[in-house]
Fold:
Amino acid sequence: MARFLTSGRRRYGLPLILLTVAALFVLAAPAALADSGASDLPLQWTGSGTFVPAPSGGSLFTGTAFGTQIGKASIHADVPPQPFPIPACGSGSNFIVVPQTLTAANGDAISEIVSGDGCQSGPTTFHFTGTYTIVGGTGRYANATGSGSAIEDGDLGTSPFTFTESQNGTISLNP
Structure:
């Protein structure tokens, strides 16, 4: 039997090989994960815009936003019809589910579902608190996932009607 890596009378063969393999695995694992392209990144943005009645009986929201992972973007949401009157905040709310798209300046888009509770916060204003769930998109966001909180305020006393919106959570870019 051939001697492998000996020093004096000690044999280092099998223990040295096992230690080397373990070290390579520990060093290679983070690189393999990084190469997979999966990432869990912060997604925070704020935006504003206008909304008008939509042919569906709901409202069509359009505006602009700026935030992490998206840069300057456009907002598009087609809110389904809501029962009126909208309950006053503190006395109830309407549960709302809205498909929304954020489109970056280069045309790549994040598709998400925003859901939560809307209530009337003043004589002509409403407030929405809920969550967003990313369900893919196009380009860089084609297989994206993620979730977080969403807040929106709208004013029906302006012409055109106006809104502000913000989201705070995460996005994972999955190749």
Summary: The beta strands are 6-7, 10-11, 40-53, 59-67, 71-79, 94-104, 109-120, 125-137, 145-155, 161-172.
